[in-house]
Design a protein that fits this description.
Helix content: 40-55%
CATH topology of the largest domain: D-Maltodextrin-Binding Protein, domain 2
CATH class of the largest domain: Alpha Beta
Low-confidence stretches: none
Radius of gyration: 23 Å
Number of strands: 12
Mean pLDDT: 85
Strand order of the largest sheet: 4-3-5-12-6
Largest sheet: 5 strands, mixed
Strand content: 15-25%
Order of helices and strands: HHHEEHEHEHEEEHEHEHEEEH
CATH superfamily of the largest domain: Periplasmic binding protein-like II
Length: about 300
């Protein structure tokens, strides 16, 4: 006999999403004491703690809690799909759009505007993340669509190419390579490089150099695009990135120069992904079609 109901799973995912019992209680329309008691019973039944409770701080998921929430979100998505399948005309009222964090400032404002017009009445929630986070979110059902690079995705993902990008070498204006219209990989291999700290991004960049038999020197791994640009502007090395703001100044106001790589094999597509092919009549499929059309028109 099953002890936990779908309502229990909904409670746990709401607490994880809001980080507090009060916010989650309001979202699932129960009192805070009732939700607190339910969580205690759920944890007692499972025999493990799902949330860390510290006075004055938001509830934080334990490692076991993260695993449980991921599985619970997937279960709730499946249950909703089964329910909608049996009710003609029922449509999805909420969609979660993920985006790789470096692309988010460039793509999400446009994407939200497109979806607001194409899907009136549908709530759109955004999720920023790294490659692994977005992949896991789609696998678990926590994310319906994602705007990202085609890195780390297996054959189980549906892809729609939006446009292609040539990586840029970023440096201080007085750097010797700044006078070149394009920068060959061979020249960059002689420079201290500044790359993203993201694992798949580093692996991708290293493969580009290895394709020409080159072994570059990585001077710094930056946790953010702006740190990469700031380090390059200060003369700490040459930054390599696919996503760059349309400005010639770093956050600190230091001048920058960006030059494209002279390497056709380095061109990468920005894609809209979905785990598996969505039902053609679903809200997810309609959102995907609207975004593909909009970004195609932008090119």
């Amino acid at each position: 006999m099953l002890y936990l109901t779908l309502r229990h799973y909904e409670y746990v995912t709401a607490i994880a999403r809001h980080g507090s019992l009060s916010g989650a209680a309001a979202a699932v329309h129960v009192s805070q004491p009732a939700l607190s008691a339910a969580l205690a019973r759920i944890e007692a039944h499972l025999g493990r703690v799902l949330f860390l409770r510290k006075k004055g701080a938001a509830l934080a998921l334990t490692p076991q809690g993260r695993e449980f929430v991921a599985a619970a979100e997937a279960l709730l998505v499946q249950a909703a799909q089964l329910e909608r399948a049996g009710i003609p005309g029922t449509t999805q009222s909420r969609i979660v759009l993920g985006c790789f964090r470096d692309l988010a400032p460039f793509l999400l404002p446009r994407a939200l505007s497109v979806l607001k017009e194409a899907l009136p009445g549908v709530e759109v929630e955004i999720l920023e993340g790294d490659f692994e986070g977005l992949i896991n979110a789609q696998l678990s059902g926590a994310c319906d669509l994602a705007l990202t690079w085609d890195l780390g995705l297996d054959a189980g993902f549906t892809r729609r190419e939006l446009y292609r990008v040539t990586p840029q070498a970023v440096m201080a204006p007085l750097h010797p390579l700044a006078a070149e219209p394009e920068i060959p990989l061979k020249a960059l291999a002689q420079e201290p490089l500044i790359l993203s700290r993201e694992g798949l991004s580093i692996a991708h960049m290293m493969r580009l150099f290895r394709s020409e038999g080159l072994v570059p020197t990585i001077a710094h791994r930056a946790a953010s695009l702006e740190l990469l640009r700031s380090l390059a502007a200060s003369g700490a090395g040459v930054g390599l990135a696919y996503s760059l703001p349309q400005t010639e100044l770093s956050y600190a106001g230091m001048p920058l120069v960006a030059r494209p790589l002279a390497a056709p094999q380095a061109v990468e597509p920005v894609v809209l992904t979905c785990h598996a092919e969505p039902n053609p009549t679903s809200t997810t499929a309609r959102a995907m079609a609207a975004l593909v059309q909009a970004f195609a028109q932008d090119e």
